[in-house]
Amino acid sequence: MNERERARITEHLALCEDCYSVFVETGQTLAAAGPTESTSAIGWRRWMTGSTFARCSAAVLATAACLGLIAGTGNLPASRRPHRELQAMMAAVGTDRPIEGRLSGGFSYGPVRGSVRSGAPSAQALSPDLRIAAASSEKALSGVGTPEVLHALGVIGLMVGDLDRAVPMIEQAVEQSRSDARMLSDLSAAYLARAARDQRPLDLTKALAAVDRAVRANPELTEALFNRALALERLALVEQARTAWEDYLRIDDESGWADEARAHLNALR
Fold it and tell me: Rounded distance, CA 205 to CA 188, Å?
């Protein structure tokens, strides 16, 4: 699929809910069918006769997109899939930051998109590239239950605003890995996001407990230091939060994250 075709498909997916539904459901069908059945046969047999296709002839583009973008991803060794899929999500997200906490792995800095107060954001709130990357990554990681895969699926859930799925996924990853600093830090970010959405004070306590473990495991993990300062601030532990933001700025004093840390610190002063 060349760039012109991809641009045509993603532009249409951004405007047509019917076609986006085709895209997502085809991906789910491919994941459920597994490698024993031809992806092209599944996609075309399911949608050439479906009512969604009848309503919009451009649905063929959505099916083609799904087949072209997510078929064949199962050939990558399972140990390498989570890293590759998270890299794809980072590229798709860019600077569109959905949560206040900082996720590990190298996500670019950007201002917070806005809190989601009830449920996941509508499809219109997500870019076509992000929707495609999420569907592709979830298909590629399906059927593998390692901590790395569970963690990756949880992060993908955070990226698309599905906190109700993301938090349990990362909890499972942490339970299996125990002391992985990155997973613990991302769990803290997930708890902070859910606390903001649902007004759940207990999640703030959970966020601090998780990130304290992350910092003990890796005292120089910048994402963990950022999330720890944020958790302390949200718990109204002002003096400790000030110290935590200062600790963060000793590790990072130049990035966009550092500018945000300084803004938090100035507000607390």
Answer: 9
Q: What does the pLDDT read at residue 192?
A: 98
**Average per-residue pLDDT in the chain?**
78
d(CA 181, CA 220) in angstroms, rounded, equals: 10
Residue with tokens 């939060």: 241
Structural domains of the chain in order of their starting residue, each with its CATH number: 1-71 (no CATH), 78-217 (1.25.40.10)
What lies within 8 Å, CB to CB, of 200 at 6+ separation is: 194
pLDDT of amino acid 123: 41
Q: Is the dihedral of CA 27, 33, 39, 42 positive or negative?
A: negative
Residues in CB range of 150: below 8 A, 6 or more apart: 169, 170, 172, 173, 176
94-131, pLDDT tens digit by residue?
Answer: 898 999 999 999 999 999 976 444 444 444 467 787 88
Residue 81 has pLDDT above 80, yes or no: no
Cα 105 to Cα 83: distance, rounded to the nearest angstrom = 9
